[in-house]
Specification:
alpha/beta, TIM Barrel, 17 helices, single chain, about 475 residues, four-stranded mixed beta sheet
Amino acid sequence: MSTIVRTLNVSILGQENIERIHEASLYLLEHVGMKMTGDRTIEKLREKGAVVEGDLIKFPRLVVEAALKTVPKEVTLYTRDGQPNMVINSKNNVYFGTHADQLEFLDYKTNKARAYFKDDIKTMCSLADSLPNISFILSVGMCSDVDPAVQSQVTFLETVKNFSKTINFSTNDIESLQEIIDIAAVVAGGHKELQEKPFIFNYCEPIPPLTHPLESTEKLFISASNRIPVVYMPYSMMGGTAPVSIAGALTQNNAEILAGVVITQAVNEGAPIIYGSMPTVFDMQTTVGSYAAPEFHLAIAAAAEMADFYGLPFYGTAACSDAKTVDPQAVAEASMELFSTSLSKANIIHDIGVMDHCNSVSPAMVVIASEIINQLRSYCKGVEVNDDTIGLNVIQEVGFGGHYLQHEHTFNNFRSIWYPELFSRRMMNPDDSDLMERVNVKIDQILEQHIVPELDKTVLESLAEWEKKYSVK
């Protein structure tokens, strides 16, 4: 699986500021607390030493520190057939993922948005399965032509049949979470096998500021009970549901995430959890939560440093846009975000190709983002300095006014330079851009030629029984 290996080191916060945010977060947890619903979760927290005052839960420092000692610092996620796919830790490895479904589909032929249909899942899965820069896909349950009561399960079933890598899933309700885990266990060969080699991980959120409703606590509880890796990710808007300052938003989000860490460890010590944070801006001109604001992506990079401080894997966001279509704004925003996240300490990057502040997903933008990721892979290698790369003897041999085209050193090393697949370096460019034409050709070729490995016949038969169950609802 292709990934970026960083040798560059860029610091956003610095150690002193990281520790200040950490201490401020502990203060919030211990002295202000969190509003929380869920009797069995609250009882587990009480047993671990949390202070329970009705639905207000306070977390003494020692309780938080104890949870941070037992939470895994590394998570390995597997492919559908049990092969290691992503090793997620606080080291500098980074992986990217897109969406299997969304509210709208940005048609790559017309560059116009329309409703997302179940059949589009196969298109996005085939595309993501073929691209080496895409390591996982998100199954979020948003198809317009599926019964809302079973959208999460139906979308997951369609995804698991058409995607061979790792699946990040979310659910529209509590009840469907265990069912999706049970479906995944069928594919993995059993719940024990799924725990040992998880090819799925769950996504859920608290509700900023400082609130963890039943849907959040129960999803954490079920994930931890099944030892399924879970992302806990507050989506806050500075000036709306978080302080307008980046430092304040980071502190609030960090406290909410640490509460999630304590919950998972109280339910099942050693259960894996992934630190996620989305502190964006509340745009006072339009009232949207921007997916492309520079403050948002600076804050994400800073939040990745907080996760690194705890030794936890980090779930980030990039290559998304507030634009409705693939246009100069969309490409500019995606490029800025990918550059930022590639220099940060983020490990898992989601929302590749998401458009219109998370209303739609664009296959074309996924392909363009993949090209940008290839650029950044070369950039993030940094500059290697040794006798061969300096090449004093080569410079001397070529001498004054010569050239290096025929030198052996050039022949041995020119392949280390990145060469674009889609972006143009032609000597004579056409008067009008044909980038989208090349992108469309690539997508068509993938959809025509790429074959996702088929699941075992007995597994498909079992999945068909689940599909029957949902078709009668």
